[in-house]
Design brief:
The protein has about 950 residues and is an alpha+beta fold. The chain has 18 helices and 50 strands.
Length: about 950
């Protein structure tokens, strides 16, 4: 007799629905196996033939960290294209390369952590480069396109599984794991949640990643919003992956829980399904989960819920159906199509901010190309390794001819002289290869070590001339003549060893600190000063007893950068100054910027070029906006770091081969004084972003010029009958110029007579169109009634206010070409029935000096004065009916609640007789009052007091 083939288990049966297959597999896994799945690196279950799995493959604008890959423009650059179809194709290319790379390297994951949909609320945020826009509508449109490309279009199997980052209200690196974003209900619903919601509802999202910060006093990793909002938007099993190290932060830095078992249980119950903590070591997380189970903080059913969501993603990725997975044999990698797409994206991301006619450049132009980024193709933390590389200088040599292009980088050329009279010397690195950081790929590039195979620096009688760049705020890089940057490896020696500044902790930056008659050279990465020893130049040892005396250096300037720039500029027909940032320095993950200004070194170069040649063009290549003076320049362009084709794209735009049509995805402010505090998340109260900003921007949201001109005409608008009340808008756009070019028509809406503060205008729709000279196209948009709604805090829901609404059509948020008004039916405002319902403290209309905090660790909001100790709240149109005789307040802590009507004399002052025992230990205080009819209620809070609720009776 022959042995019978064992039956195929149901979880392996592709004919069954995924839900039944997951039920079957869950039933076969032991509790310990299921617990092990909760860590980012889920181990294999060999007895069931289940492979290991990891969540998380960075893919923000190309496959990151895993070695060579196609590098597309930064996310903010993709946002600047305003082209959803282009971004969908970029997502498709990235997902195909992910599959192709995984086929030869199983470290590459298919659960991709992209895109970032945090709104670019504040331009000083260090991670501005990762988001798409300050506007939730544009952000969701671009993110939806990218996720559709990442997912693929097969109805069952996904090419990759995108996870949105970072939930929620996360725009600061300063104290990012301990700061709390105070987000009032209107801002929460109308702004921060909206970008996530519309992207999730579009159906191509596998999950989200909570952010490091707290929102309204509660860490995002235990937020009830995951359940109340995120999971209510879709029937899909969304996978929630923690950010790296965030689960431990709940205890270690945030001190929100006393034990890791409590914290882990709370995160699981809130909806976190995969814990990214302690690198590849899952033992600590699994021990915490087991401890929570033993203490009764979790049940096996809670673990099952989390594992089910992970398995749902794995089934959709085809892991259990290799013969049915249509993406299994995807091999598209660095194809001609991907290279062309990278160039197309880089071209479409370029924004022409100003132009007096100098652009496009004539073919016979003698051009001076100057600036610190003129011969650079910079990468950021979430880039892959370049296969192809194009700098502006290289591309302009090719486009105009090397004989017509003069280059001056603008670095300061210096020698560093020791107190002994010798000079810092870079030894020859004979036979050393041109190693590129990260070329081999790494699951955690933060662990990559610096090179130690090159000789340390020494000193000698003549020294080596170094290129010094001041990136702002005294942060310097020093580069050897062979192009390598001075860097410090784990052994503490200083070497010319790095191809570029980079790494989680950058080891290529220094400060010159005045000391006696010279300077100390401080290495920023280690925080130690550079000294000269017999065996080479190194940073001071950690052990003070062994520490060599820091060397006192004299900075000998051989040539100032502005002198070289001025020489080149004076001989040219036109000057191109390429300025901007290095994405690893001064404005990056972990580090916010402090100013909108260009670094002083680059301002010096710009002034020198402009003084030598009035036909000066400024090309800003940066991850964020700057405040510059455009009036003194012939032209200004901006592009994010554009990936592998950045230089080619810029050269083609400058030469007129392509007409620029990028549009700003965020407001460019004229001055630091225009900015709110970095931690002020109240976009309504602080009048932030183009939605509410009342000043004059340097360049407005949606701005971008062209080499063509366009006229707008024939605007018509109609309102659909019925409950949906959608507004249909149509108009024509004509290319009145003499070159084929793209235009980006934009539709904005605004309430003409609102009862509350509403946006000055809000983007409702846009489209990027290509028009030949003289061509006309009809553009049609449909704005759903939801585009006109606002979150009514009095009723705790969305409401469409009846009345007139303006429709604004144009080329930017301020360049309005056509306008009309429609009148919409809606629901009239209703006063707050405070006698019946009372007031949730966080549902205020206006506030000053108040922040929202957590009412309990599990749910609910309260309010408290900020650090100033006094705050005020206003609740409009409170209806006290025929009269009330008593007010009650639910408070914790100690302090005073003062109540008045319409800002008049206080009616009641309430204060606890003794402070409550803790911030969550609430008590109810009451006082007699007399109020009737409709009034605005004013509350003043003093002291460290939390107010959760106000009630009325009698």
């Amino acid at each position: 007799m022959s042995a019978q083939t064992p039956p195929t288990p149901p979880f392996r049966d592709p004919q069954l629905p995924f839900a039944k297959r997951i039920d079957d597999l869950l039933g076969r896994l032991t509790l310990d196996e299921k617990v092990s799945f909760l860590h980012q690196f889920a181990p294999a279950v060999e007895r069931l033939g289940i492979a290991a799995f990891r969540t998380g493959q960075e893919a923000l604008h190309g496959v990151a960290w895993m070695g060579p890959a196609t590098v597309f423009p930064q996310a903010v650059g993709l946002g600047a294209t305003w082209n959803t179809e282009l971004v969908r194709r970029v997502g498709e290319a990235v997902s195909k390369e992910t599959r192709a790379m995984r086929s030869r390297d199983d470290r590459v994951g298919l659960n991709v952590w992209a895109p970032t949909v945090n709104l670019l609320r504040h331009p000083l945020w260090g991670r501005n480069e990762e988001g798409y826009s300050e506007d939730p509508k544009l952000t969701s449109a671009i993110a939806t396109a990218y996720t559709h490309g990442l997912r693929g279009d097969h109805p069952t199997y996904w090419r990759t599984a995108p996870v949105l980052k970072h939930w929620l209200a996360h725009n600061n690196e300063t104290d990012r794991d301990t700061s709390s974003s105070s987000v009032r209900p209107r801002v929460l619903h109308e702004y921060d949640l909206r970008a996530f919601r519309e992207t999730v509802e579009a159906g191509a999202v596998a999950g989200v990643m909570p952010a490091y910060n707290l929102v309204n006093g509660r860490p995002n990793h235990v937020s009830p919003y995951l359940r109340e909002h995120l999971r209510a938007w879709t029937d899909e099993d969304l996978l929630v992956c923690s950010d790296a190290g965030a689960p431990s932060n709940l205890v270690d830095s945030e001190h929100y829980f006393d034990t890791h078992e409590e914290a882990t249980a709370a995160a699981v119950l809130a909806g976190v399904d995969s814990f990214t903590d302690h690198g590849t070591d899952g033992s600590k997380i699994t021990a915490r989960v087991r401890g929570a189970l033993e203490q009764g903080l979790l049940t096996e059913a809670d673990v099952d819920t989390a594992v089910r969501r992970q398995l749902s993603v794995r089934f959709r990725l085809g892991e259990f159906d290799p013969h049915h997975d249509p993406h299994a044999d995807t091999g598209d990698f660095d194809t001609p199509a991907h290279r062309a797409l990278a160039q197309e994206a880089a071209e479409q991301a370029i924004v022409l901010l100003g132009n007096d006619g100098v652009l496009p450049l004539a073919p016979d132009t003698r051009l001076a190309v100057v600036g610190l980024l003129a011969d650079e193709c910079k990468l950021d933390w979430y880039s892959g390794t370049l296969i192809h590389r194009s700098t502006p200088l290289e591309a302009l040599y090719e486009r105009f001819g090397a004989e017509r292009v003069e280059f001056a980088e603008g670095v300061d050329r210096v020698l560093l002289k020791t107190s002994a009279g010798t000079f810092l010397h870079v030894q020859a690195a004979d036979g050393a290869d041109d190693e590129v950081r990260g070329a081999e790929g790494a699951l955690d590039p933060a662990l990559l070590a610096g090179r130690t195979d090159l000789p340390p620096l020494t000193t000698d009688a003549t020294g080596t001339e170094l290129a010094l760049i001041d990136w702002g705020e005294g942060v310097l890089t020093l580069r050897a003549p062979d192009g390598r940057y001075l860097s410090v490896a784990d052994d503490g020696y200083v070497r010319a060893a790095a191809d570029q500044p980079g790494g989680w902790v950058v080891q290529e930056t220094f400060r010159l600190e005045p000391h006696e008659n010279g300077h100390l050279l401080k290495h920023i990465g280690t925080g130690r000063h550079v000294s000269v020893a017999a065996d080479g130049v190194k940073v001071a040892d950690e052990n003070p007893e062994l520490e060599a005396e820091p060397e006192v250096w004299e900075l000998v300037v051989v040539e100032r950068g502005e002198d070289a720039v001025a020489r080149a500029a004076a001989q040219a027909d036109a000057v191109l100054v390429v300025a901007g940032n290095d994405p690893h320095i001064n404005g990056r993950e972990t580090e916010d910027r402090t100013t909108l200004r260009l670094p002083a070194h680059q301002e010096r170069l710009l002034r020198a070029a402009r003084a030598a040649n009035p036909r000066t063009v400024l090309a800003l290549v940066s991850a964020y906006p700057y405040a510059v003076e455009p009036d003194a320049l012939s032209a200004v362009l901006w592009t994010a770091h554009g990936g592998q084709a950045a230089g080619t794209a810029l050269a083609r735009v400058l030469a007129g081969d392509v007409s620029p049509a990028g549009r700003l995805p965020q407001t460019w402010y004229a001055d630091d004084a225009d900015l709110p505090g970095l931690l002020d998340y109240d976009v309504i109260g602080a009048r932030q972003t183009y939605l509410y900003f009342e000043g004059t921007p340097l360049f407005p949201f949606g701005h971008g010029l062209s080499y063509a001109s366009f006229s707008y005409a024939d605007l018509s608008a109609s309102v659909t009958d019925g409950t949906d009340g959608a507004v249909h808008v149509s108009f024509t756009v004509t290319n009145t110029g003499d070159v084929t070019a793209d235009e980006v028509p934009q539709l904005y809406v605004r309430a003409a007579d609102p009862s509350v503060v509403r946006p000055r205008r809000a983007l409702a729709a846009h489209r990027r169109v290509t028009l030949a000279p003289g061509a006309t196209t009809e553009v049609t948009f449909e704005a759903p009634s939801s585009a006109f709604e606002f979150w009514d805090v009095a009723q705790g829901r969305w409401r469409l206010e009846p009345g007139p609404y303006e429709l604004l059509v144009g080329a930017s948020s301020e360049d309005v070409r056509l306008r009309t008004t429609v009148t919409l039916d809606g629901e009239p405002a209703a006063s707050r029935r405070v006698r019946e319902r009372g007031l949730a403290a966080a549902d205020f209309d206006e506030q000053s000096g108040i922040e929202i905090v957590d009412r309990t660790k599990a749910s609910g909001d309260a309010v408290t004065p900020t650090t100033a100790g006094t705050g005020e709240l206003v609740y409009r149109d409170c209806d006290f009916g025929n009269g009330v005789t008593e007010v009650s307040v639910t408070v914790a802590g100690e302090g005073v609640v003062e109540l008045s009507l319409d800002g008049t004399t206080p009616l009641a002052v309430l204060t606890p007789a003794t402070p409550t025992s803790g911030p969550y230990d609430y008590t109810t205080l009451s006082a007699g009052i007399a109020a009737e009819g409709v009034h605005d209620l004013h509350l003043r809070l003093r002291g460290p007091l939390r107010l959760a609720h106000v009630g009325f009776s009698g």
